[in-house]
Amino acid sequence: MTDSFCRLVSGGKAVYKVRRSEFIAAVYPASSVEAAQRAVEEVKAEQRNATHNCWAWRTEPIGRRSEASSDDGEPAGTAGRPILGELCRLDLWDAVVIVTRYFGGVKLGPRGLIEAYSFAASEAIGHAQKEFFLAGRQVTLVTDYERQTALAGLLRRHGLEGPGQEAEREYGETVKIRLFVPLSRVLSVTEATGSYEWNRLLVEAPALGGPLWRKAPAEE
């Protein structure tokens, strides 16, 4: 997984008509598989007279990372996978897309179905609100008051602290510094903190926390 990913924060809808078939696409936030399943069932209940209710979801980018899709009776690979493909193309997570089709009497063929479901899903996603997030892990460093200034300088030199990337500090008998480290740098940072350059400024071994994410800073 890359350091950044996109997450859905509000839904969107779109309607696409082609050769007398109507495709109604809706995308909803879904932070878990259970939430995605509920959204699918709700749309199926609302659109119970539809010919097909095809769907795809991607949930929990930091965690079990679930992806799933369904053609709901359309030829295999012509509906669910194209919808999922739009989510993957944008690296969009915590989202479920349901595309409802009302058949108009004219067959579209496999290629036509793939294009229709992809386009409808893309249009709905385009009307939704999305935010970018950074994936990483928390690294906790423990130093004392005499060495905290030197450690802060080391953090800045390694690009681990600075404008828009502030570390959390907890002051007690020691000084605990909690860093957010992007996934791509976790290995290099943990290896570096085991070196003499770092160890001479620490009073405890660095602690590596579990996966987490935070909102990416806005671009200027």
From TrEMBL:
One of the record's GO cellular component terms: cytoplasm
InterPro entries for the chain: Impact, Impact_N, Impact_N_sf, Ribosomal_Su5_D2-typ_SF, UPF0029_Impact_CS
One Pfam assignment: Impact_N
GO BP term, pick one: regulation of translational initiation
Gene3D superfamilies the UniProt entry points to: Impact, N-terminal domain (3.30.230.30)
Domain Impact N-terminal, residue spans: 19-125
Family: Belongs to the IMPACT family.
This protein's name: Impact N-terminal domain-containing protein
Taxonomic lineage from the root: Bacteria, Thermotogati, Synergistota, Synergistia, Synergistales
